[in-house]
Design a protein that fits this description.
The complex is a heterodimer.
Chain A: H1 2-19, H2 22-49, E1 52-53, E2 56-57, H3 58-92, H4 95-99, H5 105-111, H6 119-135, H7 142-173, H8 177-184, H9 202-212, H10 220-226, H11 240-261
Antiparallel strand pairs in A: 1-2
Helix pairs in contact in A: 2-6, 3-5, 3-6, 3-7, 7-11
Chain B: H1 2-16, H2 20-45, H3 56-73, H4 77-87, H5 90-94, H6 100-130, H7 141-164, H8 173-186, H9 198-205, H10 214-221, H11 226-257
Helix pairs in contact in B: 1-6, 2-3, 3-6, 3-10, 4-7, 7-10, 7-11
The chains are: A mainly alpha, B mainly alpha.
Amino acid sequence: MYLLKMYRHFVIIYIKGKLAYHFSLVFELIANTIQIGVYFAGFMVIFHNFYNIAGWTQNEVLFMFTTSWLTYSLSCFFFWSPMKDMGQLIRTGKFDLYLTRPIGPMLYMVLQQFQYTFIPRLALSVFFWIYSMSKLSIKWTTGTLVFYAVNMISSFVIFSAITVFTGSISFWTIKSEEIVSLLTNNNHGLKNYTDYPITIYGKGIGFLLTFVVPYAFTGYYPVGNLLGKDLVHPEYAYLSPFIALVTGVAAYFLWSIGLKHYNSAGA
Amino acid sequence: MRKYADLAMIGIKEHTAYLSSVWANFLAKVVYLYMQFALWNALFASNKGSNIPLSHNETIRYIIVATIISTFMECDVIGWINGQIQSGDVANQLIRPIDYKFMIFARHIGTSLARFVIYTIPLMILICIFYNGELFCKKQLACGILSIILAYMIQFLYSLIIGLMAFWLIVTWPLNMLLAAIYKLLSGSWIPAAMFPELLTKINMFLPFRAIYAIPVTIITTPMSAESIRESLSIQLFWVVALFLISEAAWVVGKNKLVVQGG
């Protein structure tokens, strides 16, 4: 409970700080909205000429990737900014500051900020999520609802774990920005691969997205199962909670080991 | 000429100073290209027989060539100019006995040359290994290269104009981000312009973006009549002239407005 209180306190301070430059804040949100909006526009343009991809219709694909984007944006509210800055913090030695706090450095870094720039992405995802759902006729029963909800939570954990992973790497290589960009960049990131059914990339990439960087469990497998798609491995659809547990624990350990390994950059 | 060559050299050196990020950038291009390749292949494979403006082969050639061109076409001219105007550094540039715009252009060429060697050539080798088939229309290659040169100039002039907007705007990055998003879609570097719905095509007629990717890439990859090539090239030529005039005007008006903080 006190964590929530603390978080509220921190976020109020953070937003106040940002509101001091309210023009910049508003522009940031508008620019982000347009950036994400153009991505959706491009998606519509691609499907202007085509009706389906690998057996998925436009709305099915839309439903799949907005599901994944939803949890991604939620995860990014908390983890994206601290983990993206890890390289910088360690290079400059500023990470020492977090070690001197009375709460754990990870907790502190997550609580002290709120990455509002993901609000447009979340809002647009919700919009197209509802839109695609209204076009699809998914039979919602208690079973499917629970299945879907559990998978949403799992994909939140998976995304967060991957983000923490990339941040933790900075303890060793001191330059994690490139890895972060390689995974999550809006133009060329590996995450973009999962906006479409992963079967189109062939077996190798499918394996990569399933077992190495398990993005496929945030959308493709569970949603494919929900929509009754012909999955190559239908049993994978039920693995998401398990994968979430594994990646979550692994990320936790990597972070702890990294923390022990950390020697200040000096100064 | 010598001094511009030196400036180009500076561009090369600046770009190669951080070699560690080169690998990541190159890998990013490969990751992106493979995604595009797989996506369009799958789209065509699952929609056989439908009426699509471009053929399967043409589309694949289009996205490959567009990605190759993007490795040396793009450069951070907007960021440079924004930075110099905002920091007041532009005053130091103005007292030099060379033209500011040519100076930036020389640096831009230097960076492009560096990028060409570091990214374009390896990427082309990689594509030669994995893609067997004609990538270019040999007959139109000469026109295509001419078109790329024009596109390069348009891209530069466009960036110059947007960069000079810093004379009027204090915070420039939201505009840059906004335009980058529109640029990505309308230039045709992401989705072949021939695939656009009618409305988008109409809007695009009045904008310079398609002259940067869509026109040169189409000339290189798709067989066209001599007449339509001439038409495409003249559209590009028009934009070179128009953007040049706008950039000159922006420069003259903006320079008078310039107040260097603490200068």
